[in-house]
Amino acid sequence: MPRLPIFDRRNGPPLVTAVVALFCGAWLIGGFTYVYPHPVIGWLPIPVSAVLAGHACWTASRQADLDAETRRFWRHLAVACCFFLAGIVSNINDATGGPAPSQEIGMITLAGYLGTLGTAMWALLRLPSWQRSRGDWIRFGLDSGIVLLTVGAVVWNLTLRNHEQWVSQTGGAGAMLVIMAVAGLSMATFIKVAFAGAGRLDRRAIHILATGAALGGVLGVVSLLLAGRPYLSSALIAVPVAALAIHLSAVSQQRAGNREPRPRSGRPRISVVPYLAVAITDTMLLTTGSGDPATTRTMETVAVALTALVVVRQIIALRENHGLLTTVDGHLNQLRDYQDRLTHQATHDSLTDAGNRTLFEEHTSRLLAAGATFHVALLDLDDFKAVNDRLGHRIGDRLIQETSRRLTATLGAGALVTRLGGDEFALVLPGLPGHQDFAALVAAVGRPADLDGNILTPGASIGVTGVQPGDDPAELLRRADVAMYAAKAAGGQRWQRFDPRMDRAADDTARLAADLRGALAGEQFFVLYQPIVSLPDGVTTGAEVLLRWQHPERGLVPPDVFIPVAERTGVIHELGAWVFEQACRQSADWSARFGAGAPGRISVNVSARQLADPDFVDAVAATLRATGADTDHLLLEVTETAVLNAETAIDQLNRLKALGLRIALDDFGTGHSSLSLLLTCPVDVLKVDKSFVSGASAEDAGAIIVKNIIGFTTDFGIDAVAEGVETRDQAERLHAAGYRLAQGYLFGRPMSAEAFEATFQTAAVAA
């Protein structure tokens, strides 16, 4: 709400007080040209102004919304107005109560005025002060001394220097005492407000009080001009002005209410005071320099003392400014350090302190803008998820940190190493690095690492691309990513340079993925059965169910082409569930039609993503209930990689075993931890990989492995199935080694359900 003007026509009492002041001023001026026969007329309105001022102070003290300290101040000021009224009435009696008009000031008048000033000063000093530091109080003392010395010089120059005239004119030293007291009040008010604060008191009100006190003191000096005019007195103007100031300040407080005062500025608010004090003193020195030598010496002493105080204050100010500048410089340095840390955090990886994607994009953008020649390599650790699952994320983080350290040490300062996330790093290599540089990266990352007692031999797949016209950071990463996946598809632990044909292959894979999503609904999939036979007679005992895709345009798509795509896109969940349902229905049908002559085991492959699905076991149970298949005739095949890559794989396999299903570990002997898996994985059957049976090493090392595998499977009570048997000689050697089950082209290629049914029907008839 905006503040109302003090001299609003609705504020009747302030206008009356102002009119009294104007009347008294006009009366005083008129007395210089006219001798008043009844001087009491000029005095009569003055008590009215004191009464109105006191009433305004009392009204302000009763405002309920003001704080206790502010209300107390205005109560004290109302009491001061009572002393003021008493002093005025006594002053009227002194001036007009005798046989002749007089300028004398009696003791009662003096007591009234001094009581007014003393009460006002007491009220002012009781106001709350600001909290100040040691430096603040030093400046406060110096500034107070400057103000005190200056006011003292002014009072001395105007009053004490002419004390004989004052005494002879007023009949005593009372007038001088009052003027000095008024000057003291002005000084105290000024110092209190400027240096020590005034609580929640309205600042405008306190400024009006200070101005009124100062004007009252200055107007009191008018008495020196009234010698020879006893019917006039400086009180005729000084007193109404002081009453008006008190009245206006009280009204200002009433208008302001309990509004929060403006906060104290952090800058020195009266920094001009020292210079103003010196200017006033110098002016008095110049104007009195040709007079009495004692007066001149006094003013010179005051000027020197003031100058000394100002110099001391300026020295302190300079020291404080120097300290402030030092502090500001320190804060600026801290701010710069903090900004540098923020910039580093925004552009670097928190785990490895290598750069992050933001830094990669900024760096490559600068190089591209400058037309520089460089290569981008994208590195991904092979089988990193297995490390996290087997050894925990702490060891996984340690491996990432060690990889970052090795990359930085191998590449040196000229290259940039950034971590994009997970186990993926983007490298920026200046110039034209050769084959040996990338081979060195693969070798450096692949060195054995001792991580808290765990000896790991990590592998890395790296995709590399150079700069082409129109490139941006995203395109560079895309091409490097395509090359990196080509390296992984080639077996991993190698590097691969980007070739445009990879893009075509990637596009082809993308189209294949799109076709794959609708192939199941389009009934493009079918299943085949590859026989599993007993040795040495070759009688069919079961079959492995194999999925095939008859694409309407591409024709028959090989499994090693579409199965990885199904894994990446997640379609493998639907395909796996469909294959299992087909196997269950076919097994139930054969059991119903052939009874004991039905195949003893129907094997269904389960992918890593299926095994990692928490709903997988529930879905298997639902399919078994829906088809009525006998779990004794069903076998689920999982690879070692699938077990290792699924964090809850062992729990899932135990739940499947609880359903009555048997578990086969496929491609046994090709992994890194096959033997250790036998201790935790609920395995019923081991399927020995065909590389040991019919591969290049089948005649020497493969034969030794095959022989040793059958030994511990017998000890563990596990069945062993030899895969990839292609010749009778291989079958005979396997039988001689102890194998009783085999699978391969020698005994039959994957075939339809009808063709496979014929094989075990023939066996049943022969029996």
From TrEMBL:
Domain GGDEF, residue spans: 372-500
Pfam families associated with the record: EAL, GGDEF
UniProt keyword annotation of Transcription present: no
SMART domains tied to this protein: EAL, GGDEF
Annotated ranges, domain EAL: 509-764
TM region positions: 12-34, 40-61, 73-93, 105-125, 137-159, 171-193, 205-225, 231-251, 272-291
Native organism: Actinoplanes palleronii
Lineage: Bacteria, Bacillati, Actinomycetota, Actinomycetes, Micromonosporales
Full protein name: Diguanylate cyclase (GGDEF)-like protein
Keywords: Membrane, Transmembrane, Transmembrane helix
